[in-house]
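Comment on the following before class.
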Amino acid sequence: MSKKDAASVNIDAGPRFRSADEEFDENGMPIYHDTLLGTMKSLWKHIGKYKRDTIYAWLLVALETLGEILIPYVMQYLVDEIDVGASGTINVGMCFLWGGIMLLLACCGVVTGILAGFFAASASAGLGANLRQAMFYRIQDYSFTNIDKFSTSSIVTRTTLDVSNVQFAFQMIVRSLLRAPMLMIFAMIMAFVTEWRLAFIFLAIIPVIGAALLFISYFVHPLFVKIFRTYDDLNEDVQENIAGIRAVKAFGRQKEQKERFNATSNVIFEKFVHVEKILALNSPLMQVASYLAILLLCYFGAQLITTYTITPDNQLLFDMSVGELSSLLSYIMQIMIALMLITMIYTMIVMSRNSAERIIHIIEETPDIVSPENGVKEVKDGSVDFNHVRFHFKDNPENDVLKDIDLHFKAGETIGIVGSTGSSKSTLLSLLARLYDVTDGSVKVGGVDVRDYDLHTLRDAVSVVLQKNTLFKGTIASNLRWGNENATDEELKEACDIAQASTFIESFPKKYETEIVQGGTNVSGGQKQRLCIARALLKSPKILILDDSTSAVDTHTDSLIRKGLANKFPGTTKFIVAERVLSVKDCDTILVMDDGKVIAQGTNDELMETCSMYKELYESQLGGGDFDVQGD
C-alpha cells in the first residue's frame, strides 16, 4: 500500500470508535478536564502495597545521587595533590586516601543503584498488575449501559498497551524523580562552592534548555494522543479479522483485510516517525549545550588558573586550581545528565499521560446499576409484571425503544415473543435480569421491583440463553458448571438430556471432559446452543429466557427441548424469543412486537384470527400446515 493510501486513513478526525465519556474539540482532539497532577493522584491510589517499594527506591536513589555528587568534590583534592606533586614530591598517602574515598563512594553508588533498580522494577510491575486488576474488576461491575461506552478493542488496548506505557513511565519516574532534581540542585550548589564566578555559566544555559524542551513537548503530546487512540483501530481490525476469519476466507477478502490493516498500521508508523524526528532534536540540543558550557568553562577557567597573586612570603596564590576546574567540568556533565533525565521523565509523562487518562476512564466509570443497600435476598417465584415500562438508551434519550409495555404473567407460564428485527424483543427481556434499568414504570419479579433485589440474587434466579452463545476455554463439564459450580455428574447429564446435548457429548472420546477451545469453535453452532441451554438449566432458575437460542438446531430437536422444559421445569416462567413460529406456537401466551410496542398478544389460535402480522408470518413459514414432530 502506498503512503498516499495509508495517509487516507485520517486519524486527525478521531478513531472509528470514541468512548462516550470523552469529549473532543473541532480537530478531533480529546478534551481533558482533569489536570496532570489529578491523573497522577488517581494512579497513586492503585500503587497499594507497593508504596513501600517505591519509598525504598527513592531513599536508595537519594543515597546513590549523594555519592555521585561527592565524587567530583573529592576528586579535586586528588587532582590538586598530583598537580602540586608535579613540581615536587607526590604525597602518595594522600593520593591513596582520596582515591580510596572515591572508590568507596563509587561502590556505595553501585550497590544503592542496583537495589534502587530492584525496588523500582517491583513497584512499577506491581502498579501495572494493580491497574489491570482494577480495570478488569470494574468492568465486571459494569451494566450494559457502561459497557456500551467502550469498544472491545479499546478495552484491550487500555489493559495492555496503555498499562505498559504507564508502568514503564512509573519506573522511570521512581528511578529519576529524585535523582534528576537532586543531581541538578546539588551539582549547582557544589559548583558555586567550588568557584562561584564560573558557576553562573550553568545558570545561563539551564533556562534556555528548559524552554527548548517545553517547546518540543508542546508538539509531541498531541501526536502521542492520536497514536494511542489509533491503536484502538488497529486492535479492532485484528479482532474483527480473527473473529470473522471464516467469512474472510469464504468471500476471498484477504487482500482487502491486509490493505485495511496496513493502512492503520502505516498511520501509526508515520506518526511515530514524525514524533521521533521531533524528539531527536533533544539529543543534539543537549550536546550543544554541554559542549558550549565546557568551552566556556575551559576558556574562563584557564584564565583563572593562570592568574595568580604573590603573597607576602613570596608564594604564588592562583585564583583557581586544576582540581577545581576538573570538578566543575564533572559538575557540568552531571547537570547535563540531570537535564537529560528530566527530559526523559517529561517525555515519558507526555507519552503516558493519555494512556493514564484512558485507564482512569475505565476505573472511575461509575456502574449505573448496583445492588441496593439491604437488597432482597430471595426471589419468591417467577411471576413477572411489566408496569407501563418505557425505556431509552442514555445516548439517545429522544428515542424510546420500549413504549408503554404493560404485561403480567404468572409463575410457570410459557411466553413466546415474535416480531421484526429491531422491535426490541431482547431489550424487553434484558430488563428482567436488570441488565438495563427502565426509564419509566417498573419491572417486578416475584412481586418485587427488580431494583430492590440484591443483583446476585436476581441474576441467579434468571437464566438467559442468547442466540450468540459463548463457551469458554476448558472442558464441557467446566463450561456447564458455570450454571452451578457444585453440580454433580448426574445433574450435568440430566440438564444435557433436557437440552438434547447428551447424544453428541457421549459420542466424544472424552465425553464431558472433552476440551472446548477458545470461543467454542470445535463444536457446531447447534451443539453450542444446546450446551448453553444445559448450562442455564443447571441454575434451576425461576425465569428462563431463550433468546432465539435454538435457531441453529433442527425443528425436531427444538420440539424435544421445549417438551423437556415443560415436563422438568413446570414452575419456571419461560420466555422464548424466536424467528420460527413453530418454536412459539404452543406457548401459553404469544407476544407480537413491532417498533418497541406489543401490538398483539394471545394464543396461536387467537392471533391467527386477530393479528394479520402474526398470521402472515405463520403462513409464510408453515404454509398453513404444522410440521412439528408429534409423539416423541
In short: Residues 304 and 319 are 5 Å apart (CA to CA). The two ends are 60 Å apart (CA to CA).
